[in-house]
Amino acid sequence: HFSSLLLLSSAYTVPDKYFINCGASSNTTVNGQVFVADSNSLSFSTGKSEEVRNTSASINPELYQTARVYRQPCSYSFEIDQNGTYIVRLHFFAYLSRANLYDALFNVSASGFSLLTNFSVRNSSSFPVIKEYLLTIPQGKFRIQFIPSQDSSLAFVNAIEVFLANETRIIDYAPHVSSARNVSNYTGLLSQALHTIHRINFGGSQIDYDELWRKWVADDSYLILHSDSAKNSTPY
């Protein structure tokens, strides 16, 4: 099914938590947002883990110079003050250190949902892999679990974001279009874990960063190429 999630209002102010620099001993700032070092906030990470740093080359931004590595199931725990829909982002960037992050094969779950299964960054490019989800989270403890898929494997994460979205702009229903082109109503979107796959700016150009540091690609390469299929419109 295709769902339409309305853009967040420009008046929306991003909360100041949680933005975590995993495996780091000092805070770092990326695009104006401070990511707190989890080494100074031991309440975040639970279970046995290790910190690794990339010493072979300089990585920009600094957020990806460190990672927290797990060789057994472990988790991050966050205190949620308000019921609502939250944006959850997981950042992954593999490199060689005393732990070979390219060999990582692991699962990630959160709030009863399986987010990643047998996830690996072995075939990823030289750019970070960012997984983004919309989750409805109740007040209380919220845990993100990292579970190695095999006894010989490991799990890792470079950075985590968990912050309240503007839930008044996120709807609970959407049209459901079947392969036979039948259209019906789908309800219950907010009870699911919504995974962002594509982010497309219709009729406009590429946007490298919006107010939530998201990239939107132009829709030209997605259009069926007919002269009357679509046209760009100058925005007001």
Structure description:
By secondary structure, the protein is an all-beta fold. It contains no helices and 19 strands. The strands form 5 sheets. The protein has a 7-stranded mixed sheet, with no helix packed on it. Strand 2 (28-30) and strand 3 form a beta hairpin.
Characteristic key phrases:
236 residues, mainly beta, 5-stranded antiparallel beta sheet, disordered N terminus
Brief summary:
The chain is an all-beta fold. The chain contains no helices and 19 strands.
Lateral arrangement of strands in the main beta sheet:
2-3-1-14-8-11-17
How far do the termini sit from each other?
31 Å
Order of helices and strands: EEEEEEEEEEEEEEEEEEE
Question: How many E-type strands?
Answer: 19
Mean pLDDT: 84
Low-confidence stretches: 1-9
Number of helices: 0
Helix content, binned percent: under 10%
What about the largest sheet? Answer: 7 strands, mixed
Beta-strand portion reads 35-45%
Class from helix and strand fractions: mainly beta
Radius of gyration: 19 Å
Layout of helices and strands, plus pairs?
Elements: E1 19-21, E2 28-30, E3 33-37, E4 45-46, E5 50-53, E6 66-70, E7 74-80, E8 84-92, E9 106-110, E10 113-119, E11 129-137, E12 140-148, E13 155-157, E14 159-164, E15 173-177, E16 183-187, E17 194-195, E18 200-201, E19 217-218
Parallel strand pairs: 1-3, 18-19
Antiparallel strand pairs: 1-14, 2-3, 4-7, 5-6, 6-13, 7-12, 8-11, 8-14, 9-10, 9-12, 11-17, 15-16
